[in-house]
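Quick log. Single chain, no ligands specified.
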Amino acid sequence: MGIERHVKLFKNGSNQAVRIPREFEMPGEEVIMRKEGDRLVLEPVKRMSLVELLDSLEPTDEDFDFGEDLPAEPFEL
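-> predicted structure:
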């Protein structure tokens, strides 16, 4: 078993809270919490890269009309 430490629970408004000791710090600003029996499990939120997001999308057969390709109009600076 890994590191173990006793910590105190406290109230934060109407929520119950616990301070996470430095040796248990997690990356990022969000975690996913789930209950497994009597245990609470915290996991870091894994952010998807743009490539992972695009790979996760289902292909579509829908045709998109992007309008007519027009040359750019000249402009002066």
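The longest strand covers residues 31-36.
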